[in-house]
Automatic annotation (TrEMBL), chain A:
<dbReference type="InterPro" id="IPR014729">
    <property type="entry name" value="Rossmann-like_a/b/a_fold"/>
</dbReference>
<protein>
    <recommendedName>
        <fullName>Cytoplasmic tRNA 2-thiolation protein 2</fullName>
    </recommendedName>
</protein>
<keyword id="KW-0963">Cytoplasm</keyword>
<dbReference type="GO" id="GO:0005829">
    <property type="term" value="C:cytosol"/>
</dbReference>
<dbReference type="GO" id="GO:0000049">
    <property type="term" value="F:tRNA binding"/>
</dbReference>
<dbReference type="Pfam" id="PF10288">
    <property type="entry name" value="CTU2"/>
</dbReference>
<dbReference type="GO" id="GO:0016783">
    <property type="term" value="F:sulfurtransferase activity"/>
</dbReference>
<dbReference type="InterPro" id="IPR019407">
    <property type="entry name" value="CTU2"/>
</dbReference>
<dbReference type="GO" id="GO:0016779">
    <property type="term" value="F:nucleotidyltransferase activity"/>
</dbReference>
UniProtKB/TrEMBL annotation, chain B:
<keyword id="KW-0963">Cytoplasm</keyword>
<keyword id="KW-0833">Ubl conjugation pathway</keyword>
<dbReference type="Pfam" id="PF09138">
    <property type="entry name" value="Urm1"/>
</dbReference>
<comment type="similarity">
    <text>Belongs to the URM1 family.</text>
</comment>
<dbReference type="GO" id="GO:0005829">
    <property type="term" value="C:cytosol"/>
</dbReference>
<dbReference type="GO" id="GO:0032447">
    <property type="term" value="P:protein urmylation"/>
</dbReference>
<feature type="modified residue" description="1-thioglycine">
    <location>
        <position position="97"/>
    </location>
</feature>
<feature type="cross-link" description="Glycyl lysine isopeptide (Gly-Lys) (interchain with K-? in acceptor proteins)">
    <location>
        <position position="97"/>
    </location>
</feature>
<comment type="function">
    <text>Acts as a sulfur carrier required for 2-thiolation of mcm(5)S(2)U at tRNA wobble positions of cytosolic tRNA(Lys), tRNA(Glu) and tRNA(Gln). Serves as sulfur donor in tRNA 2-thiolation reaction by being thiocarboxylated (-COSH) at its C-terminus by MOCS3. The sulfur is then transferred to tRNA to form 2-thiolation of mcm(5)S(2)U. Also acts as a ubiquitin-like protein (UBL) that is covalently conjugated via an isopeptide bond to lysine residues of target proteins.</text>
</comment>
């Protein structure tokens, strides 16, 4: 009896190895298997640091870890990178800073202690020195923290090479941090928590409150880096996060800061350089990596975790970007790539997304002659929604030529 | 029919802080699909603000759905027919820092 054997495979194959079944769709059409995804994820981290050559061998780098998925994933990448064989090894000296914002979101002392204990266990396991900082500490900082310290010296490419050479000669392994006694977090005085809450409470809108929190957080991190002798501050902002930040900045009318807010490195504080090695990762990639490779992260409710989308511009933008990402997976990386030069932003965006976005962006562009559209200036919330609708309806037929139609989106 | 259901990365805030839900679905003549599961979750597990989890008849954008550790986009999304012992994970990617 003749037999007919059919091997039917309906599952999609990985685009990289073309063998294993795909497990994750990163962008439309790019489906990776688990192994290839891991390689891709880990490689990207080292590649971005290697390409930018901004972190010197042996340099002290403070990792800002919020306990959220992205910064916890960053911490894992640093751990992995330091444990590699010599030629592929990351060669800086890390420390961890965590800011306990419990007071800002009205957590009780017990809740704060519980979160801190959870994170402490994660940090201790890394063997890196770590600092647990109640946000209240920012109240004690001198105003000068906010000011820009002069950069010690410009560091040209030759300085990088010299540092590498020196590092190799002196055997970099000695520079590895010795595990420290964990620093006990001193819980802030109740009075200080009150002062902080009053400060935040004095700000009317959720939008402004999130902005203020952001500023306070940043200052405390920069201050800690300075006093503890770190010269780089590594932030865990993902690509999705940065796209949200970028559009939020635009909505808040802060075009001038855009490149600094979202770039790979940010030298606004002079002696302390901010770096964002996670900016090439989408929130989805991070969530998947963390799930698959059991990267612990802690759910910390934020000011807005359960609030409605329209409660603040940040929230609104987040939901906008997320919607975009779901509909057109390549859009988010497009948005964030635009930050390279503010002036090119509107043009690139126009090419991909359409006129309305041009108008929204052009409102924050100082060198543009096109009048800002009514979109941004009238009602920022509606503008964001309007922007989404426009992008959605137009992305189906991408525009390749520049055509300006002022006021189109708002009718 | 049972299927462990998990919420990672903030999704558990929506499920009253419970991270793992071993779920036994009532038997029905047709196999359960994801679409029906979402309706069931909404009726039985979501304590507050279901709009943060569902939108229309699917999940809200920003919630990653994994079926047996694979992206549900590769599994037919809402049309996927659940098997006994399937592992379904919902991960919120919103507010990640
Ligand atoms: Zn593969
Ligand atoms: Zn311009």
């Amino acid at each position: 009896m003749a037999a007919l054997l059919l091997f039917i495979s309906v599952s999609k194959k990985c685009v990289k190895c073309k063998e294993a079944p795909a497990a994750l769709v990163i962008r439309a059409g790019d489906a990776y298997c688990r192994l290839c995804f891991k390689d891709f994820f880990v490689h990207k981290f080292k590649a971005v640091l290697g390409k930018n050559r901004i972190i010197f061998p042996g340099e002290k780098v403070l990792l800002a870890v919020s306990g959220g998925p992205s910064s916890c994933s960053m911490l894992r990448q640093v751990q992995e990178g330091l444990s590699q064989k010599a030629n592929k090894k990351l060669r800086f000296v890390p420390g961890i800073a965590y800011i306990d914002e419990g007071a800002a979101i009205g957590q009780s002392v017990e809740e704060r202690q519980r979160t801190v204990a959870e994170l402490q266990a994660v940090f201790q396991a890394t063997g890196f020195p770590f600092y647990i900082l109640p946000l209240e500490q920012v109240l004690d900082l001198p105003a000068s923290v906010v000011a820009t310290n002069p950069s010690p010296s410009e560091q040209p490419a030759s300085a990088y090479k010299a540092a590498v050479g020196h590092f190799v000669e002196t055997d970099g392994s000695n520079n590895f941090p010795t595990p420290q006694e964990p620093k006990k977090m001193l819980l802030p005085h109740v009075q200080e928590s009150h002062t902080l809450q009053q400060l935040l409470g004095s700000v009317k809108t959720l939008t402004a409150r999130e902005e203020l929190l952001n500023t306070l957080r940043q200052h405390l991190l920069v201050h800690t880096a300075r006093t503890e002798g770190y010269s780089k501050l590594m932030l865990g902002d993902s690509c999705t996060r940065l796209a949200v930040k970028l559009l939020t900045s635009i909505s808040l009318g802060r075009g001038a800061q855009l490149a600094q807010d979202t770039g790979f490195s940010d030298s606004r504080y002079g002696d302390i350089i901010l770096v964002r090695p996670m900016r090439d990762y989408s929130a989805k990639e991070i969530a998947y990596y963390n799930h698959l490779f059991t990267v612990p992260s802690v759910v910390i409710p934020s000011v807005d975790t359960k609030t409605v989308d329209k409660a603040s511009i940040q929230r609104l933008t987040e939901s906008f970007v997320t919607k975009l990402q779901a509909d057109f997976p390549s859009t988010v990386s497009t948005i964030y790539r635009l930050q390279l030069h503010t002036c090119f932003m509107h043009i690139s965006t126009l090419n991909i997304l359409g006129t309305c976005v041009l108008q929204v962006f052009s409102a924050s562009c100082p060198s543009l002659t096109v009048k800002p559209s009514t979109c941004v200036t009238q009602d920022q919330r509606e503008a964001a929604e309007c922007m989404y609708e426009m992008v959605r309806s137009r992305a189906l037929r991408p525009m390749s030529a520049v055509s300006v139609q002022p006021g189109y989106c708002c009718g | 029919m049972s299927s462990p259901l998990r919420g990672d990365g903030g999704a558990e805030l929506l499920f009253n802080g419970v991270k793992k839900h071993p779920v036994t679905l009532p038997s029905q003549s047709e196999p359960w699909d994801m679409k029906q599961l979402l309706v069931w979750i909404q009726r039985n597990l979501l304590k507050e603000r279901p709009e943060l989890f569902v939108q229309g008849d699917s999940v809200r954008p920003g919630i990653l759905v994994l079926i047996n550790d694979a992206d549900w986009e590769l599994m037919g999304e809402l049309d996927y027919q659940l098997q006994d012992q399937d592992n379904v994970v919902f991960i919120s990617t919103l507010h990640g820092g």
